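I have been asked to look over a protein record a colleague put together. This is what I was given:
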Amino acid sequence: MTRWADARVVGLAPVLILVACFACGPRPGAADRSAGGTGGSETSETGQITASDTGSPFACDGARWLNEGVVVDDATPPDSLRDIGGIRGNLEVVGSSVLEDLEFLSCLEVVVGNVAIVDNEALVSLHGLEQLRVVGGAVIPDGEFPPEDIESNGGIAILNNAVLPGLEGLESLERTRLSIAGNPSLASLELPSVTSIGQLVLGECPDDAGVAGDNPALTGFGAFERLVEIRRLTVFNQTSLASLESLTALAEQGVEFEDAVFAGNPQLEQEEIDDFAAAAGIVVETCGNKDEEPCGTGFCFGE
């Protein structure tokens, strides 16, 4: 499978497949370790989560590790998650008709696996995730020296949330991968603290059918004040996206891009893409944008 096929699966598959594609998750056995609920955590320069040298707790007094993944829906009692500082597994907020925000997760700082926020019809804010710094990364419990092979590259999927207007609430997020599709009210992608995005996927690949991938209120990219790199950028079928000005400015400021594809974006002109590609110093693959030929049926799989 080629890189574009990989991007397609990461961004659009059902939640369980999406989680598997974002990362392999923690090494088997990692969830069986001691919770270390009184131990704190830090982010190393490599993105690993390490135990605090001082043994200090999470920012919230009494916050603890949860040694398994958690699914949040309308049947989940929010108070059961208020003291969680870290999750050694995946966090899935899925299919809620009543949740308007995530304030019950206000102590959460680290998710070792993936975060999926999907099909929440009343969600208007990611408030509650203000302390979330890292999604993915090796976790080292207090008093243990980590084997070198403990590693996870997690990601966040924000899919099909009807009234979510932006990413406010993720102000502390430092490094992750992002898949964003089918959010009709989403108008902003601002992430002021993020430094590294391994992959940013917007929308669905053009020859897919039956999945709503457009974010129709999104007309451009927002501010990424501390960004150092976006390794892989894929932008599919964003019907209102007309400007890459902020992306071009990031590239001109030295933000690194490894590769990018823009496909099926009817308002996006080739001049915008060319300016970005020149600033980033990369070859960009395109098709089906404004005044371009449609993408072929095998485009998503590199045929």
Observations:
- The radius of gyration is 19 Å.
- The CA atoms of residues 228 and 254 lie 8 Å apart.
- The chain is about 10% helix and 20% strand.
- Residues 33-146 form one domain.
